[in-house]
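Batch job 17 of 40 flagged for manual review because the log was empty.
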Amino acid sequence: MLYANGEYSLEQFIEDTSRVKSVERLFEVFIAAMANLGFDRVNFSVMRDLDLDASAQGFGLISTYPAVWQDYYADNGLARIDPVVKWAVGSVRPFRWNDIEHQAELTRRQRHFLREAEEGGLCNGIGVPFPGPRTLRGGIALATSVRRSKQMENLDVLAAYCHQFYVVYKRLVPPGLRLSPAAAALTRTEQEVLMRIAHGLSNEVIAHRLGIKAGSVDFHVQNIFRKLKVNNRTAAATKGLMGGYIEV
């Protein structure tokens, strides 16, 4: 993959990925390419792409983030406040995480979240969204494990690598049924439950807050998982926010 001068061109990346025959190999090529460009932290998610089968969608399909950070993020329900996710929903261009602080009104907790991410080994963060006709399909987050590091500075070129990766990914995975977004619409109660899941509340607490039985909450949670095509609470909360099903 590397040239004599240590660079890995977009043209070479396109050629390499065009020959890939499996998703596993595509992931390997992409992770290596990003590392060559200076980014050793990669997170790839597909949250709502109607062109793809449910098996090809999810949060963190690729994640080389530190396991400690991934656990901390999930255990504390940080999807509900993650300013990178919220910014990506309305973006069509790649962006730097630190630019969000200057261009958006963040809460103190959101600013603290960005500091925690750096301390957790996610520095020099970049977001590359994959916008759809109605909302965000998914995206790629890139970062470095150390603050002082040399990485590609041209975001448009970096986005070109990511979009090429996504084109090949969509070619390799099973196609979707191209259902209308309305087919996955949540009921009002399901939206209420999902909003509280995004706040990190347990089923028992949700039941108390809504004045319903815990068994009813369990039923609604399973319906949410089925409609959003996810299998855990973190993915449901993230997809709910990125897909515009809820606002927190």
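Reviewer: the log was empty due to a logging misconfiguration, but the result itself is present. Strands lie at 41-46, 58-63, 95-96, 123-131, 136-144. Unflagging and moving on to job 18.
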